[in-house]
Amino acid sequence: MKLNLNLYQVFLLSVIIxxxxxxxxxxxxxxxxxxxxxxVIKRDTVAPPEPPGSPIRPVTAxxxxxxxxxxxxxxxxxxxxxxxxxDSTAAKGVLRGTQGLVSLGAWGGxxxxxxxxxxxxxxxxxxxxxxxxPIPNIFAEPGVIWVMDDKNGNGKPDDTWxxxxxxxFDHDGYVRNYQVTYTRPANDADDIPWTDxxxxxxxxxxxxxxxxxxxxxxxxNGRTLTVTGTLLPSTNIDDSNPxxxxxxxxxxxxxxSTYGGDKVDISNAIDKDGKRxxxxxxxxxxxxxGVLYDMGWLGxxxxxxxxxxxxSIVKLDQ
Length: 318
Ligand SMILES: [Ca+2]
Ligand SMILES: [Ca+2]
Ligand SMILES: [Ca+2]
Hints:
Layout: H1 7-46, E1 69-74, H2 88-92, E2 102-103, E3 110-120, E4 128-131, E5 143-148, E6 162-164, E7 175-183, E8 192-196, E9 201-204, E10 224-231, E11 237-238, E12 246-247, E13 254-255, E14 262-264, E15 269-270, E16 281-289, E17 304-305, E18 307-310
């Protein structure tokens, strides 16, 4: 058959072929686009769920902003140990407010406290406040603050402790996995000798102000007490004038350092290798005396605790 097309028909035919080609391309694009969307949706749908986090105990109208439970009190030797400032009654006194006062004794002594709800880790903000008895800018007795989330949900602090990294992390004199062994003295009224796992040794010395029979903690049954934790530097202590010894606070991150309380951020939690840990919230805290130093007539460096609170619900005076 002879194709007899005039110019108009040729033009029309090209337009039709062109539109057909275009529409087929468009169709291909649409198919590819649909496949892509389907794949994306499919990928999102089959993505593995996040591993279950620790159970969160939400804040309710009756939640107490302060710690409400004392789980453990293991003071190290010290001038207030076995007195009303360093016994289990004093330890219970720091619950539900800031009116209490308990001494943790020399380096490594600690207290474990719990909240009646999970203290959430607020992004880019401090979450906890720990109260001590420092004298502003001249007398701090820094305590290392540890936190724990109740991973197994049994209400007990039997999970993993994470140190809250403070300003002295990795500075000279900062030692993780530091260990001290205090030995019960031959006579109750003697100074208490210690050795550490770095080759160091010294004494927790008696003074004339505190005359209880012994500074060796009554809760220890054996001959020795071995404690593990993080040692903070004693570089901020100035005892060049023995009559006027000062201990300046570190920049941030430790208790018994700031008048009015030390605010800390759960985001500074680190694991045993010093790596950051992401915690949605915490249920327990541990405060542990961080500096090992004999302050002359002032006695040993010993962190004191007056209370601890959840910053998101506590009402502070200041
Ligand atoms: Ca935070
Ligand atoms: Ca637990
Ligand atoms: Ca103190």
